[in-house]
């Protein structure tokens, strides 16, 4: 039975990875999950300098999910290279570094720093606000998305995954834009902008007022967008958004995802990723599927 998948020439032993921002760089979860059983570990967002993140409170539970406004808090590329890459290199898994920035130059600086590091792929978070363009996210304008993709690709030593925002009118057009810019792979969805109000305190549940909604509540929208994106482009697609179990992951794969990322589920079930791997294998055994590629995009 073959569970391995190919993403732009990088072979993953299985299609299951972590979603950025939900797994750190694996240190916290390594006592629960053997990271070597995963196809890849996707790190928390890494910027060129340390980011303090947003004021607290930054997380609120919602029905069927959660809202977060962490603000991509991270210690910066220097600490990441010194601390996190050596930790992940202990395991037989692919390392995918999520990169964030506030300007094109920020992204390019991190990408250049990672060129000589032993990491396998780069995932570019274009849901970040472009401070030079009035704060609109790079991923909410097709021209900006194509331009940032092209700028990153010019300097990247590793294959580039562009992570798409769902907060757009036409996800297919965004997928085509980053493909035109040279993306090797696309991943989606990032969180959906949401809000929660505390009726007793009569204030916003998170200090930022709005935050990113994730968890099971977003899965039907995520599956739809992954299907649309997979139909629109020729590059591989990584699907995510509300995956709790193997059945959820298989929906994304059947919709056209070559791989999947487990995110919010990790917060309430630290074993979620390994359980998804085992569940996909059990499904293939049940239905006599010899190769995972038979399932990718099988639903048209």
What does this structure look like?
- The mean pLDDT is 96.
- The strands form four sheets. An eight-stranded parallel beta sheet has the order 3-16-15-10-9-8-7-4.
- α2 (104-113) packs parallel to α3 (142-155) and α3 runs parallel beside α4 (171-180).
- It has eight helices and 16 strands.
- Helices cover 30% and strands 20% of the residues.
- The protein is globular, with a radius of gyration of 18 Å.
- With 300 residues, it is an alpha/beta fold.
The backbone outline, from C-alpha atoms, is globular
Rg value: 18 Å
Structural class: alpha/beta
> How many strand units?
16
Strand content: 15-25%
What percent of residues adopt helix (DSSP H or I)?
Answer: 25-40%
Query: How are the strands ordered across the major sheet?
Result: 3-16-15-10-9-8-7-4
Helix-strand topology string: EEEEEEHEHEHEHEEEEEHEHEHH
Sketch the major β-sheet.
Answer: 8 strands, parallel
| Cα end-to-end separation | 24 Å
Tally of alpha and pi helices: 8
The unreliable regions are none
Q: Averaged pLDDT, please?
A: 96
Question: Helix and strand layout, with pairings?
Answer:
Blueprint: E1 5-7, E2 10-12, E3 16-18, E4 40-42, E5 59-62, E6 65-68, H1 77-88, E7 94-99, H2 104-113, E8 121-125, H3 142-155, E9 160-163, H4 171-180, E10 185-188, E11 192-195, E12 197-198, E13 203-204, E14 210-214, H5 219-232, E15 237-240, H6 246-255, E16 259-262, H7 265-268, H8 272-286
Parallel strand pairs: 3-16, 4-7, 7-8, 8-9, 9-10, 10-15, 15-16
Antiparallel strand pairs: 1-2, 5-6, 6-14, 11-14, 12-13
């Amino acid at each position: 039975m073959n569970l391995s998948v190919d993403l732009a020439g990088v072979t993953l032993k299985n299609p299951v990875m972590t979603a950025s921002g939900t797994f750190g760089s694996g240190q916290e979860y390594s006592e629960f999950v053997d990271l070597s059983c995963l196809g890849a570990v996707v790190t928390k967002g890494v910027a060129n300098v340390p980011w303090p993140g947003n004021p607290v409170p930054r997380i609120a539970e919602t029905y069927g999910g959660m809202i977060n406004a962490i603000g991509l808090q991270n210690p910066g590329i220097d600490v990441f290279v010194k601390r996190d890459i050596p930790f992940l290199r202990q395991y037989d898994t692919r390392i995918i570094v999520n990169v964030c920035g506030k300007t094109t130059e920020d992204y390019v600086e991190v990408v250049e720093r990672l060129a000589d590091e032993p990491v396998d792929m780069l995932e570019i978070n274009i849901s970040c606000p472009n401070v030079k363009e009035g704060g609109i996210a790079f991923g909410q304008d097709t021209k900006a998305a194509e331009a940032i993709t092209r700028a990153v690709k010019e300097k990247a030593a590793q294959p580039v995954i562009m992570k798409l925002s769902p907060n757009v009118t036409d996800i297919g057009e965004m997928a085509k834009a980053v493909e035109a810019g040279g993306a090797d792979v696309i991943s989606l969805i990032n969180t959906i902008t949401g809000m929660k109000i505390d009726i007793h305190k009569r204030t916003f549940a998170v200090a930022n007022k709005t935050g990113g909604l994730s968890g099971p509540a977003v899965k039907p929208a995520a599956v739809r967008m992954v299907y649309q994106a997979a139909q629109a482009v020729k590059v591989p697609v990584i699907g995510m958004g509300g995956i709790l179990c193997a059945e959820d992951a298989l929906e994304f794969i059947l919709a056209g995802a070559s791989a999947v990322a487990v995110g919010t589920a990790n917060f309430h079930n630290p074993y979620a990723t390994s359980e998804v791997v085992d569940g996909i294998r059990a499904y293939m055994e049940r239905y006599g599927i010899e190769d995972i590629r038979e399932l990718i995009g099988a639903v048209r």
